[in-house]
Design goal:
The chain is of the alpha/beta class. It is built from twelve helices and seven strands. It has a seven-stranded parallel β-sheet. The model has no long low-confidence stretch (mean pLDDT 97).
Length: 296
């Protein structure tokens, strides 16, 4: 991973270990961050959706970032700084900066369907914290779409340096390359990894490496290196799990897979609820197949 573009490579959107009483287990989280790096990942993204940031207290959210930095060093930590208000997002970016992080990831305003002027103002405000900002385009959940033309404007103004692209529309990779080739494209959904890697992605903000980091790292590097024979086989083997990253129950699914492979996934905080029996059975079957194939 290059220091001047610390968002490149595999940055795992980390699941957050909770105890039976749903408090945060910071020791387990530190160990998890270190384990991911030891197993082929380049860094972590704390306080993303997978980290259940929406249901953390401010104190918990700050400590999660500090825990990750202490575990693996700030250059490898890119916290999510999403919030309803731009001032609050900027404060989270400043907290990340002061903790020693090298970049942050930012959703557009998502308390309402923001217009383009609001989106531009939001990114301009958070950029004032002084850390490079990676935009996160998730129009499925936020209802605000960072289309290529808008991303080009944000980059031209100096407010973003990369984009985590979660729309699932792989055609956008080619439009972005035409409009703004200097903007780094990061794979944002696990189940379009191969398609976006072929299209020139520079990194992967990843979900399923929480459970299967080594196999996921092998898949990513084969894909970006153009070793399509290796990549396609691994992709087919892993895709029954990777597609859970794009489902509503992605946090529960990934945590269950972690439990199955011998890591600690644990429970989720409300309003999330446990998987339905048929969902749990599907995740369990797919995970056990991956284990049997030597991918865990």
């Amino acid at each position: 991973m290059t220091d001047h573009r610390p968002w490149r490579g595999i940055l795992v959107a980390t699941a957050l270990p909770l105890t039976d009483d749903l408090s945060v287990d910071y020791d387990k989280y530190a160990e998890h961050c270190a384990w991911l790096v030891e197993n082929g990942c380049d860094g972590v993204v704390p306080n993303g959706s997978l980290g259940e940031y929406q249901v953390l207290t401010p104190e918990e959210r700050a400590r999660v970032v500090e825990t990750a930095v202490a575990a693996i060093g700030g250059a490898r930590v890119m916290p999510g700084v999403a919030a309803y208000g731009s001032a609050e997002s900027r404060r989270w970016a400043e907290q990340a900066r002061d903790a020693g992080c090298a970049s942050v990831m930012l959703l557009p305003p998502n308390a309402y369907r923001a217009d383009e002027r609001s989106v531009l103002a939001h990114y301009a405000e958070v950029a004032k914290a002084g850390l490079p900002v990676v935009a996160y385009n998730n129009p499925i959940d936020t209802k605000v779409d960072l289309v290529p033309e808008l991303l080009a404007t944000l980059h031209r103004e100096g407010w973003i340096h990369a984009v985590k692209e979660f729309s699932g529309d792989v055609r956008r990779a080619y439009r972005l390359a035409e409009l703004v080739p200097e903007l780094d494209l990061l794979i944002g959904a696990d189940d379009v990894l191969l398609e976006l890697a072929i299209a020139g992605a520079k990194g992967w903000v990843a979900g399923y490496p929480n459970a299967l980091p080594a196999a996921s790292s092998e898949l990513y590097h084969a894909a970006v290196d153009g070793d399509l024979a290796t990549a396609k086989k691994l992709y087919e083997q892993l895709h029954p799990l990777l597609r859970w990253d794009s489902q509503v129950e992605f946090v529960q699914a990934i945590k269950l897979s972690m439990d199955i492979v011998g890591r600690y996934g644990g429970p989720v905080r409300p309003p999330r609820v446990p998987l339905l029996p048929e969902q749990e059975a599907a995740v369990r079957t797919a995970t056990e197949r991956a284990v049997a194939a030597g991918l865990a």
